[in-house]
Amino acid sequence: MTVETAENSRFSSGMLPGAVRHDWTRAEVASLFALPFPDLLYRAQTVHRAFFDPCEVQVSTLLSIKTGGCPEDCAYCPQSAKYNTGVKAEKLMNVEAVLTEARAAKAAGASRFCMGAAWREPKDRDLDKVCAMIEGVRALGLETCVTLGMLDRAQAQRLKQAGLDYYNHNLDTSPEFYGNIITTRTYQDRLDTLANVRDAGIHVCCGGIVGMGESADDRIGMIATLASLPVHPESVPINMLVQVEGTPLAGAGTLDPFDFVRTVAAARIAMPRSLVRLSAGREEMSDEMQALCFLAGANSIFYGPKLLTTPNPAADRDLQLMERLGLRSME
Ligand code: SAM
Ligand code: DTB
Ligand code: SF4
Predict the structure, then answer these.
(1) What is the DSSP annotation of 89-102?
(2) In whole numbers, what is the pLDDT of the chain averaged over residues?
(3) How far is CA 70 from CA 37, 79, 172, 177, 271, in A?
(4) pLDDT band for position 74 (50/70/90)?
């Protein structure tokens, strides 16, 4: 068993229900998914409560700073130029317009502001503007996150210098299923970007999507890969596919909601110290399903009526849900 002393030090006095490990095998992750639902949720709750206050949820707001026209072919994505989805391509927003949105997000109660761009990778002149956005958003007292596609080492270091807190770059699925979803960049490209972000000292936000027609083994493979990274991502978004007309995955078979909840629970157990984000797909989920995800260890959400291009629950529906469940916003 690999024990990471710094990560475990807070829990050295008998609170630790399991060490933070980086050697999760697929068989072990498979055995989590195979647990009866009550046993899986009990384990996820036990881990969650040892590492977090189970009534606290981290609240992030998302903004698309550069929409559509992307050269990549990610089969789930409404922003790929290869599919006719009705998303209008727009240029990179100007800094002041982004800061106006960030102020509104802060006033509405978000603690982190995540900016997404539909790029394969950023150009250097784009990074100048993105760095100015990061500096401005930080100055408002918000945590910053960006997702801009692939990054080399120097680009990651520039973002770190601008004060970036988190970089989002998802593995999306298992290494085996990945080629069915994206052909314009490899799984290894993604792992390289994640290493560049980690080495630059930026917190990593990395997860994937459930409901793309993947098998149970693929969901196991995705969690095992994330949990075997040398350091776990500090934030793990678990997205439920938002099916968008015009993308190849529109009409992908329906997902058993309990398999989504199982994936959240497995992420919680395998990456105990990470924030697990109940990410895209909440607009299509019942309040009861979201509550099950929180019980399974999800403790972060995107808040505000829009994700990047698709709808998210209205702020008042989320505030009501948090109130009904006795959940509080994490400072
Ligand atoms: N272009 C950058 C990239 O791909 O890294 C950043 C933005 S991209 C939209 C960020 C992530 O959003 C994707 O990796 C994917 O996990 C998620 N995503 C995109 N479209 C989605 C959809 N229709 N349903 C669920 N998640 C989606
Ligand atoms: C993540 O894992 N999910 C977010 C964020 N990271 C950038 C994006 C979800 C996008 C859903 C489809 C859309 O709104 O375009
Ligand atoms: Fe482009 Fe990102 Fe969408 Fe892929 S997920 S098509 S890289 S915007």
Answers:
(1) P-PPPPHHHHHHHH
(2) 94
(3) 40, 6, 17, 22, 32
(4) very high
> Tokens 């936000």 sit at which residue?
205
The dihedral formed by the CA atoms of 37, 42, 45 and 47, expressed in degrees to the nearest 10: -110
Q: 314 near 282, Cβ under 8 Å? A: no
Helix axes 257-270 and 216-227, enclosed angle (nearest 10): 20
Tell me which residue of 48, 51, 114, 58 sits closest to 328, measured CA to CA. Answer: 58
Residues with catalytic function: 70, 74, 77, 114, 145, 205, 277
Question: Treating both helix axes as pointing N-terminal to C-terminal, what angle do 257-270 and 37-51 enclose, rounded to 10 degrees?
Answer: 40
**Residues 266-287: tens digit of each pLDDT:** 999 999 999 999 999 999 999 9
Helix (H, G, I), strand (E, B) or coil at 165: coil
Distance, CA of 242 to CA of 283 (rounded, Å): 9
The two tokens of residue 270 are 């395998």
Average pLDDT over residues 302-322: 95
Q: Are 88 and 38 in contact (CB under 8 A)?
A: no
Question: To test ligand 2's pocket by mutation, which of 307, 309, 312 has the most ligand atoms within 8 angstroms of CB?
Answer: 307
Q: Which of 64, 73, 77, 119 to mutate to test the pocket of ligand 3 (most atoms within 8 A of CB)?
A: 77
- Compute the average pLDDT of residues 66-76: 97
Paired strand residues for 168: 205
| C-beta of 64 in contact with ligand 2 (< 6 A) | no
Q: Supply the residue whose CA is at minimum distance from atom 6 of ligand 3.
A: 80
pTM: 0.94
Strand partners, 306: 311
Going by alpha carbons, the residue nearest to atom 4 of ligand 2 is 280
Q: Name the residue with the closest Cα to ligand 3, atom 2.
A: 118
Convert the pLDDT of each residue in 211-240 to its tens digit: 999 999 999 999 999 999 999 999 999 999
For range 199-209, the mean pLDDT: 98
Distance in Å, CA 275 to ligand 1 centroid: 18
What is the pLDDT averaged over residues 165-182? 98
